[in-house]
Amino acid sequence: MKKFLFSFMLIAGLLTLSGCGQKEDENALVILNYGKYIEPDVIQQFEKETGITIKYEEYESPEEMYTKYKAGSIKYDLICTSDYMIQKLIHEGEVLEMDYDNIPLYENIDPTYVEFSKAFDPETKYTLPYFFGTLGILYNKTMVDEADMDSWNVLWNPKYKGQIIMENSVRDTFVPALRLLDYSINTTDEDELNEALSMLCDQKDLVYSYLVDSSADEMIAGNAAMALIYSGEAAYAQDYNDDLDYVVPKEGSNMWMDSWFIPKTCQHKDAAEQFLNYLCREDIGMENFDYVWYATPNNAVYDELDEEVQESTTIFSDQETLENCEIFNSLDVPATETYDYLWKKLKSY
Protein backbone atom coordinates (compact mmCIF):
# COMPACT_ATOMS: atom_id res chain seq x y z
CA MET A 1 0.00 0.00 0.00
CA LYS A 2 1.75 2.17 0.15
CA LYS A 3 4.13 5.17 -0.25
CA PHE A 4 3.38 8.90 -0.29
CA LEU A 5 -0.21 8.49 -1.37
CA PHE A 6 -1.80 11.27 -3.35
CA SER A 7 -5.39 11.47 -4.54
CA PHE A 8 -4.54 13.66 -7.50
CA MET A 9 -2.49 12.99 -10.61
CA LEU A 10 1.21 13.77 -10.37
CA ILE A 11 2.49 12.47 -13.69
CA ALA A 12 2.23 15.18 -16.32
CA GLY A 13 0.71 14.26 -19.60
CA LEU A 14 -1.17 11.17 -18.41
CA LEU A 15 -4.95 11.23 -18.59
CA THR A 16 -6.97 10.45 -15.50
CA LEU A 17 -10.45 11.68 -16.24
CA SER A 18 -13.69 9.74 -16.35
CA GLY A 19 -14.16 8.03 -19.66
CA CYS A 20 -10.75 6.38 -19.81
CA GLY A 21 -10.84 2.92 -21.30
CA GLN A 22 -13.80 3.38 -23.61
CA LYS A 23 -13.67 1.08 -26.60
CA GLU A 24 -13.24 3.89 -29.10
CA ASP A 25 -9.66 4.30 -27.84
CA GLU A 26 -8.36 0.86 -28.80
CA ASN A 27 -4.68 1.66 -28.31
CA ALA A 28 -4.89 2.76 -24.67
CA LEU A 29 -4.21 0.89 -21.45
CA VAL A 30 -6.16 2.13 -18.43
CA ILE A 31 -4.29 1.67 -15.14
CA LEU A 32 -5.25 2.35 -11.51
CA ASN A 33 -2.50 2.41 -8.87
CA TYR A 34 -1.54 3.86 -5.51
CA GLY A 35 -0.21 7.40 -5.62
CA LYS A 36 3.47 7.84 -6.43
CA TYR A 37 3.92 4.09 -6.75
CA ILE A 38 5.63 3.92 -10.13
CA GLU A 39 8.52 5.84 -11.65
CA PRO A 40 6.95 8.26 -14.20
CA ASP A 41 9.69 7.57 -16.76
CA VAL A 42 8.72 3.88 -16.66
CA ILE A 43 5.30 4.72 -18.07
CA GLN A 44 6.67 7.11 -20.67
CA GLN A 45 9.28 4.59 -21.80
CA PHE A 46 6.62 1.88 -22.21
CA GLU A 47 4.60 4.21 -24.41
CA LYS A 48 7.64 4.94 -26.56
CA GLU A 49 8.61 1.27 -26.88
CA THR A 50 5.15 -0.05 -27.70
CA GLY A 51 3.07 2.82 -29.10
CA ILE A 52 0.45 2.00 -26.45
CA THR A 53 -0.96 5.02 -24.62
CA ILE A 54 -1.30 4.73 -20.85
CA LYS A 55 -4.24 6.39 -19.16
CA TYR A 56 -3.31 6.47 -15.50
CA GLU A 57 -5.28 7.19 -12.35
CA GLU A 58 -4.22 7.16 -8.70
CA TYR A 59 -5.96 6.46 -5.42
CA GLU A 60 -5.14 6.83 -1.73
CA SER A 61 -6.38 3.67 0.00
CA PRO A 62 -7.56 0.19 -1.03
CA GLU A 63 -11.05 1.17 0.07
CA GLU A 64 -10.98 4.19 -2.26
CA MET A 65 -9.74 1.95 -5.07
CA TYR A 66 -12.65 -0.43 -4.46
CA THR A 67 -15.15 2.42 -4.61
CA LYS A 68 -13.64 3.80 -7.83
CA TYR A 69 -13.63 0.40 -9.46
CA LYS A 70 -17.13 -0.60 -8.38
CA ALA A 71 -18.56 2.73 -9.55
CA GLY A 72 -18.13 1.35 -13.05
CA SER A 73 -17.59 4.70 -14.77
CA ILE A 74 -14.08 3.75 -15.92
CA LYS A 75 -13.19 0.43 -17.52
CA TYR A 76 -9.84 -0.32 -15.94
CA ASP A 77 -7.47 -2.74 -17.67
CA LEU A 78 -4.98 -3.18 -14.83
CA ILE A 79 -5.01 -2.40 -11.11
CA CYS A 80 -2.41 -2.58 -8.35
CA THR A 81 -3.58 -2.85 -4.76
CA SER A 82 -3.10 -4.66 -1.47
CA ASP A 83 -3.53 -8.32 -0.60
CA TYR A 84 -6.79 -8.21 1.37
CA MET A 85 -8.59 -6.09 -1.23
CA ILE A 86 -7.51 -8.40 -4.03
CA GLN A 87 -8.83 -11.31 -1.96
CA LYS A 88 -12.18 -9.54 -1.69
CA LEU A 89 -12.39 -8.88 -5.43
CA ILE A 90 -11.42 -12.46 -6.29
CA HIS A 91 -14.24 -13.70 -4.06
CA GLU A 92 -16.62 -11.33 -5.83
CA GLY A 93 -15.63 -12.70 -9.25
CA GLU A 94 -14.15 -9.39 -10.35
CA VAL A 95 -10.70 -10.66 -11.37
CA LEU A 96 -9.57 -12.33 -14.60
CA GLU A 97 -6.99 -15.11 -14.73
CA MET A 98 -3.59 -14.07 -16.04
CA ASP A 99 -1.97 -15.83 -18.97
CA TYR A 100 1.54 -16.17 -17.59
CA ASP A 101 2.74 -17.43 -20.96
CA ASN A 102 2.36 -13.81 -22.04
CA ILE A 103 4.50 -12.72 -19.06
CA PRO A 104 7.72 -14.73 -19.57
CA LEU A 105 9.70 -12.45 -17.22
CA TYR A 106 7.41 -13.60 -14.43
CA GLU A 107 10.24 -16.07 -13.86
CA ASN A 108 12.13 -13.17 -12.22
CA ILE A 109 9.65 -13.15 -9.33
CA ASP A 110 11.02 -15.01 -6.32
CA PRO A 111 8.94 -18.19 -5.77
CA THR A 112 8.92 -17.38 -2.04
CA TYR A 113 6.63 -14.43 -2.70
CA VAL A 114 4.53 -16.29 -5.21
CA GLU A 115 3.95 -18.80 -2.42
CA PHE A 116 3.16 -15.97 -0.03
CA SER A 117 0.53 -14.76 -2.48
CA LYS A 118 -1.47 -17.93 -1.83
CA ALA A 119 -2.76 -16.22 1.31
CA PHE A 120 -5.00 -14.07 -0.91
CA ASP A 121 -4.71 -15.77 -4.32
CA PRO A 122 -4.81 -19.48 -3.34
CA GLU A 123 -4.22 -20.84 -6.84
CA THR A 124 -1.78 -18.04 -7.78
CA LYS A 125 -3.53 -17.50 -11.07
CA TYR A 126 -4.79 -13.95 -10.65
CA THR A 127 -1.90 -11.81 -9.44
CA LEU A 128 1.65 -10.61 -10.00
CA PRO A 129 3.62 -9.43 -6.92
CA TYR A 130 4.87 -5.83 -7.11
CA PHE A 131 6.24 -4.72 -3.72
CA PHE A 132 6.00 -5.98 -0.15
CA GLY A 133 6.89 -4.79 3.33
CA THR A 134 5.93 -4.47 6.96
CA LEU A 135 4.16 -2.08 9.31
CA GLY A 136 6.36 -0.86 12.15
CA ILE A 137 7.67 2.15 14.04
CA LEU A 138 10.03 4.74 12.59
CA TYR A 139 11.72 6.60 15.43
CA ASN A 140 14.24 9.36 16.02
CA LYS A 141 17.16 7.97 18.02
CA THR A 142 17.89 11.41 19.53
CA MET A 143 14.34 11.79 20.86
CA VAL A 144 13.62 8.38 22.40
CA ASP A 145 15.08 5.82 24.72
CA GLU A 146 15.92 3.02 22.30
CA ALA A 147 15.30 0.45 25.04
CA ASP A 148 11.61 1.38 24.77
CA MET A 149 11.38 0.64 21.07
CA ASP A 150 11.06 -3.15 20.96
CA SER A 151 7.37 -3.17 21.92
CA TRP A 152 4.17 -1.56 20.69
CA ASN A 153 3.80 -0.36 24.30
CA VAL A 154 5.96 2.63 23.42
CA LEU A 155 3.01 4.14 21.54
CA TRP A 156 1.24 4.41 24.90
CA ASN A 157 4.20 5.82 26.82
CA PRO A 158 3.20 9.21 28.32
CA LYS A 159 6.75 10.54 28.15
CA TYR A 160 6.28 10.79 24.37
CA LYS A 161 3.01 12.73 24.59
CA GLY A 162 2.46 14.84 21.46
CA GLN A 163 5.34 13.14 19.65
CA ILE A 164 3.56 10.05 18.27
CA ILE A 165 2.22 9.81 14.70
CA MET A 166 -0.42 7.17 13.95
CA GLU A 167 -1.73 6.01 10.57
CA ASN A 168 -4.98 7.59 9.44
CA SER A 169 -6.16 4.07 8.58
CA VAL A 170 -8.45 1.84 10.58
CA ARG A 171 -6.78 -1.52 9.86
CA ASP A 172 -3.23 -0.21 10.41
CA THR A 173 -3.96 1.79 13.55
CA PHE A 174 -5.71 -1.16 15.20
CA VAL A 175 -2.65 -3.41 14.68
CA PRO A 176 -0.56 -2.24 17.69
CA ALA A 177 -3.50 -2.50 20.10
CA LEU A 178 -4.61 -5.90 18.82
CA ARG A 179 -1.11 -7.36 19.00
CA LEU A 180 -0.55 -6.02 22.53
CA LEU A 181 -3.78 -7.79 23.48
CA ASP A 182 -2.49 -10.94 21.74
CA TYR A 183 -5.36 -10.87 19.25
CA SER A 184 -5.12 -11.49 15.52
CA ILE A 185 -4.98 -8.40 13.33
CA ASN A 186 -7.81 -10.06 11.39
CA THR A 187 -10.14 -10.49 14.35
CA THR A 188 -13.82 -9.78 13.81
CA ASP A 189 -14.76 -10.50 17.42
CA GLU A 190 -16.54 -7.37 18.65
CA ASP A 191 -15.39 -7.79 22.25
CA GLU A 192 -11.76 -7.98 21.11
CA LEU A 193 -12.17 -5.00 18.81
CA ASN A 194 -13.80 -2.95 21.55
CA GLU A 195 -10.88 -3.74 23.86
CA ALA A 196 -8.53 -2.46 21.16
CA LEU A 197 -10.68 0.63 20.67
CA SER A 198 -10.54 1.37 24.39
CA MET A 199 -6.73 1.24 24.25
CA LEU A 200 -6.64 3.54 21.23
CA CYS A 201 -8.99 6.01 22.93
CA ASP A 202 -6.67 6.04 25.94
CA GLN A 203 -3.75 6.68 23.60
CA LYS A 204 -5.36 9.49 21.63
CA ASP A 205 -4.23 12.26 23.96
CA LEU A 206 -0.62 11.24 23.28
CA VAL A 207 -0.96 11.38 19.48
CA TYR A 208 0.60 14.23 17.50
CA SER A 209 -1.48 13.44 14.42
CA TYR A 210 -3.13 10.71 12.34
CA LEU A 211 -1.48 10.92 8.92
CA VAL A 212 -1.41 9.06 5.62
CA ASP A 213 1.03 10.57 3.16
CA SER A 214 3.22 12.90 5.22
CA SER A 215 4.49 10.78 8.13
CA ALA A 216 7.93 10.34 6.58
CA ASP A 217 8.31 14.05 5.91
CA GLU A 218 7.29 14.88 9.48
CA MET A 219 9.88 12.44 10.79
CA ILE A 220 12.59 13.75 8.47
CA ALA A 221 11.89 17.25 9.78
CA GLY A 222 12.12 16.08 13.40
CA ASN A 223 8.55 17.09 14.18
CA ALA A 224 7.76 13.85 16.02
CA ALA A 225 9.66 11.21 17.95
CA MET A 226 8.03 8.18 16.31
CA ALA A 227 5.52 7.15 13.68
CA LEU A 228 3.48 4.08 12.86
CA ILE A 229 4.59 3.65 9.28
CA TYR A 230 5.16 1.35 6.32
CA SER A 231 8.68 0.03 5.85
CA GLY A 232 9.27 1.67 2.47
CA GLU A 233 8.40 5.10 3.79
CA ALA A 234 10.72 4.41 6.71
CA ALA A 235 13.58 3.52 4.37
CA TYR A 236 12.97 6.69 2.37
CA ALA A 237 13.01 8.80 5.54
CA GLN A 238 16.21 7.17 6.80
CA ASP A 239 17.89 8.14 3.56
CA TYR A 240 17.27 11.80 4.43
CA ASN A 241 17.82 11.74 8.19
CA ASP A 242 20.55 9.62 9.78
CA ASP A 243 18.92 9.93 13.20
CA LEU A 244 16.02 7.69 12.16
CA ASP A 245 15.69 3.96 12.67
CA TYR A 246 12.89 1.41 12.15
CA VAL A 247 11.62 -1.54 14.14
CA VAL A 248 8.89 -4.15 13.88
CA PRO A 249 7.92 -4.70 17.53
CA LYS A 250 8.33 -8.08 19.15
CA GLU A 251 4.56 -8.69 19.48
CA GLY A 252 4.30 -8.97 15.68
CA SER A 253 2.70 -6.87 12.99
CA ASN A 254 1.33 -6.81 9.47
CA MET A 255 3.27 -8.04 6.46
CA TRP A 256 1.62 -6.83 3.29
CA MET A 257 2.02 -7.42 -0.42
CA ASP A 258 0.84 -5.15 -3.20
CA SER A 259 0.15 -6.97 -6.45
CA TRP A 260 -1.19 -6.34 -9.92
CA PHE A 261 -4.41 -7.92 -11.15
CA ILE A 262 -6.54 -7.72 -14.28
CA PRO A 263 -10.14 -6.74 -13.46
CA LYS A 264 -13.05 -8.13 -15.42
CA THR A 265 -13.62 -4.65 -16.91
CA CYS A 266 -10.37 -5.09 -18.86
CA GLN A 267 -10.69 -4.42 -22.59
CA HIS A 268 -7.00 -4.73 -23.48
CA LYS A 269 -5.80 -7.91 -21.79
CA ASP A 270 -2.88 -8.57 -24.14
CA ALA A 271 -1.58 -5.04 -23.59
CA ALA A 272 -2.07 -5.41 -19.83
CA GLU A 273 0.03 -8.59 -19.79
CA GLN A 274 2.61 -6.91 -22.00
CA PHE A 275 2.88 -4.11 -19.43
CA LEU A 276 3.24 -6.62 -16.58
CA ASN A 277 6.05 -8.38 -18.42
CA TYR A 278 7.71 -5.00 -18.93
CA LEU A 279 7.51 -4.28 -15.18
CA CYS A 280 9.33 -7.56 -14.49
CA ARG A 281 12.30 -6.49 -16.60
CA GLU A 282 15.45 -5.98 -14.54
CA ASP A 283 16.11 -2.39 -15.70
CA ILE A 284 12.48 -1.34 -15.22
CA GLY A 285 12.22 -3.09 -11.87
CA MET A 286 15.38 -1.29 -10.72
CA GLU A 287 13.98 2.10 -11.75
CA ASN A 288 10.84 1.40 -9.78
CA PHE A 289 12.77 0.20 -6.73
CA ASP A 290 14.94 3.31 -6.72
CA TYR A 291 11.79 5.42 -6.85
CA VAL A 292 9.55 3.59 -4.36
CA TRP A 293 12.01 2.06 -1.83
CA TYR A 294 9.87 -0.91 -0.91
CA ALA A 295 11.10 -4.49 -0.92
CA THR A 296 11.07 -5.98 -4.39
CA PRO A 297 10.11 -9.63 -5.04
CA ASN A 298 12.06 -9.47 -8.31
CA ASN A 299 15.22 -11.59 -7.99
CA ALA A 300 16.84 -9.99 -11.03
CA VAL A 301 16.57 -6.61 -9.31
CA TYR A 302 17.52 -7.82 -5.83
CA ASP A 303 20.68 -9.51 -7.13
CA GLU A 304 21.92 -6.19 -8.53
CA LEU A 305 21.32 -4.13 -5.38
CA ASP A 306 24.23 -2.90 -3.28
CA GLU A 307 25.05 -5.22 -0.40
CA GLU A 308 24.15 -2.47 2.07
CA VAL A 309 20.65 -2.25 0.61
CA GLN A 310 20.23 -6.03 0.52
CA GLU A 311 21.13 -6.15 4.21
CA SER A 312 18.77 -3.35 5.22
CA THR A 313 16.31 -4.87 7.69
CA THR A 314 14.05 -1.86 7.18
CA ILE A 315 13.49 -2.79 3.55
CA PHE A 316 14.05 -6.55 3.68
CA SER A 317 12.90 -7.86 7.06
CA ASP A 318 14.57 -11.02 8.31
CA GLN A 319 12.70 -14.31 8.21
CA GLU A 320 12.05 -14.38 11.94
CA THR A 321 10.32 -11.00 11.77
CA LEU A 322 8.19 -12.00 8.79
CA GLU A 323 7.15 -15.24 10.45
CA ASN A 324 5.87 -13.18 13.38
CA CYS A 325 3.64 -11.12 11.09
CA GLU A 326 0.18 -11.68 9.62
CA ILE A 327 -1.30 -10.42 6.39
CA PHE A 328 -4.66 -8.71 6.40
CA ASN A 329 -7.61 -10.83 5.32
CA SER A 330 -10.54 -9.24 3.54
CA LEU A 331 -13.52 -8.48 5.77
CA ASP A 332 -17.13 -9.35 5.06
CA VAL A 333 -19.75 -6.59 5.10
CA PRO A 334 -20.71 -6.89 8.80
CA ALA A 335 -17.06 -6.87 9.89
CA THR A 336 -16.27 -3.91 7.64
CA GLU A 337 -19.18 -2.00 9.13
CA THR A 338 -17.93 -2.82 12.63
CA TYR A 339 -14.43 -1.58 11.89
CA ASP A 340 -15.82 1.57 10.26
CA TYR A 341 -18.07 2.25 13.24
CA LEU A 342 -15.22 1.81 15.73
CA TRP A 343 -12.96 4.00 13.63
CA LYS A 344 -15.51 6.80 13.66
CA LYS A 345 -15.81 6.44 17.44
CA LEU A 346 -12.04 6.75 17.81
CA LYS A 347 -11.75 9.79 15.55
CA SER A 348 -14.60 11.57 17.34
CA TYR A 349 -13.44 10.61 20.86
TrEMBL record:
Q: Which UniProt keywords apply?
A: Periplasm, Signal, Transport
**Localization terms from the record:** Periplasm
Q: Determine the domain of life of the protein's source.
A: Bacteria
| Pfam families reported for this sequence | SBP_bac_8 (PF13416)
**Record flagged with keyword Signal:** yes
> Record's PANTHER family?
SPERMIDINE/PUTRESCINE-BINDING PERIPLASMIC PROTEIN (PTHR30222), SPERMIDINE_PUTRESCINE-BINDING PERIPLASMIC PROTEIN (PTHR30222:SF17)
Name this protein carries in UniProt: ABC transporter substrate-binding protein
